[in-house]
Amino acid sequence: MENKMQWSRRELKERSKAVLRTHYWRIVLVALLLSLLADGDKTPLGVIESVVQEQTGSVEEKEPVLYSLGLSDTYRIIRDHVLNKQYMGGIVVGTAVFTAFILFLIVAFSGLLLSIFIINPLEVGSLRFYNRGFDTKPRFKELFHVFEYKYKNVVSVMCLKDIYTFLWCLLFIVPGIIKSYEYLMVPYILSEHSDMRPKEVFAASRQLMRGQKWKAFVLDLSFLGWVILSGMTFGILGIFFVSPYRALTFTALYRKLLGGDVIPHNIYYDGMEEETGNNWYGLPDNKIPYGGQEEKQEV
Prior knowledge:
Distance between the termini: 17 Å
Order of helices and strands: HHHHHHHHHHHHHH
Number of helices: 14
Structural class: mainly alpha
Largest sheet: none
Number of strands: 0
């Protein structure tokens, strides 16, 4: 059944900017931490772009592309450092290339482990942190919530999400894009329900995103100008505005799709933040849609 929830980009962005203004430095610190750990773009469009580059190669040459820690740059640095020593003889050159390749594999494998066991759980924790910002002052301990509760489940579900998206992108780009937006709500759901089984999480994300994937895609494209400006400032604008702004906007989308934020939010009004301590406003825990029998059979 299609999700008929109505929303507008302007509505979501206004609410996200209100949250960003209210808790600016806390949110920026979280965005800075994530940017230091994950050098790649983990938005759906960013992942698709990485897969396309991996399949087609760049203009100069085809190099390995990985999503975190700038591993392709690491490989290039190692390779150039070794080859620029001007070794003489085929055996020496071959040994140098082999050494560079082994070093790259070590760095790549380490980065993969870091992404699976540290970066992905932190991403889920950051979404929990951002979500709390809509209701009250978010606490930094929310960032590490999944390390204390159902850590293995979060790691496995996020790993499955990355694998599914990657495989769909390898088959066909357009279905890969569709699937990436179908799975868009997986980390948001895990941030509030880290004990849900993988099939239930994917089914819930599919149900939330039914009829919403195209609008979410357009919402993503609406940040393109900000991304370009961020690149022109060497990522500084991204850390201090674009990344948290986008993250909060999609958090607002998650809340909207759950049926939340149907009344004026407390952050718009001075002196009302303390009322959140009485739970006067928040997202109900039972609003996550669980898929039926048909949903559980789909990947």
